[in-house]
Structures are given as C-alpha cells and as structure tokens.
Design brief:
By secondary structure, the protein is an all-alpha fold. The chain contains nine helices and two strands, in the order ααβααααβααα.
Length: 214
Amino acid sequence: MEHDSVGSIDNYCIRTNISIMVNKVIIKKIIGISTFFLMFLVTLGFMVGLLATFIDSTSLYYLEQLNYLVIKGYYYELFTSIFITNSFVDFIFNFISLYVIYLIFGSRAGKHEYGIFILAGILGNLLTVIFYSPFTLSSGASGGIFGLLSYYTFYDFLKKDNLGVYGLVFLVSVFGVSDLIFPNVNVVAHIGGILGGIMYAVVYYLIRSGRTIK
C-alpha cells in the first residue's frame, strides 16, 4: 500500500511539472508573438473598462481620453485610452483586426510592433485633442491597429514586396467598414494612426538601408 501511495504521489508530481512546463511554454509563446500580446492587452483593457463602469462610471474620465483633462495635464490618458474601453463593439472589432493582421503578416516586425502600436495610438490621440472638442471622450486601440496596418503596407511597398498589396486592401477595408458603418467613430485618430505607422516604416526602412550599405 505504501508503494502504491508513493507511486501515486510521483505520478501527481510528474503531471504537475508537465502542466507547469506547458503553461510556461504557452505564456512565452504569447509574449514572444507581439501581436498576440497586444491582443491580450486589448482584452485586459476592456476588462478594466467594464470593471470601472460597474464600480464608478465617472472613473472612465480618468482612464479613457477626455480632451479637457489631457489639456489640464492628465497626459497619461494619451496612453491608457489606447487600451481601456468599455465598448464591446470596439473591443471585438480591434481584437479580430489584430488577429487578421497576424494572419497576414505573422508579427514580422517583432518587438517593433509595440513601438508602432503605441506611437500610432498616441499620435492619433494627440490629433484628437487638437481637432475635437475639449469635452470629447474617446478610447480604443483602433489608432494603433491602423498604425500596424499602414506600417506593414508601406514598409512592404518600400521593399517592393507583394504583401503590401494585401495590407493595403485590408487597410482600406477596415477603414471603410469602421468609419462608414459604426457610429461615433474617431476618424482623426485613425488618420493619426496611419500617419504614425507610415512614419515608423520610413524611419525603420532608412535605418535598415543604411546598415545594409555599410
């Protein structure tokens, strides 16, 4: 009986260790693929937005982007509003768009995707402050998503890669669907995101080209 008990404990320990190893591999895989990690952050932001809505809806003014507060010095909202939203439509549209971007481009930019996403999102938010009313409340990752799309599209065109065509088709499709069908869409943030992605593509291409020449 003691032998059986020890054997059961050993089997349990083995299964536990295997489970831990598998979970570590999955986590590394998610973090290693930048697009998947951005999808995780977008999901986390949506959960935070929902929680804030249920606890105290006015707290969203300090998590999403209220132009008036940004002007008054709450600059962090330029960043937090990229991820935090309480809109399920925004969340699911952004989540699916990120997955399609992964299917088309496979996270080829690697960790640069984080920089592109944040730069494009913040640029879109800055333009929102400039062109919209001080009492405009906005949020969502669409600026960053358009930044990723325009980066891949423009960078592939610079390299004369055919993938740029597919990116352009998807970019135009997403822009058309989101801006023409969904109500209260922040077109300025989308344009800012596109400009941010193009800027990143040009700078990165010039740096890479310079290194190649040397």
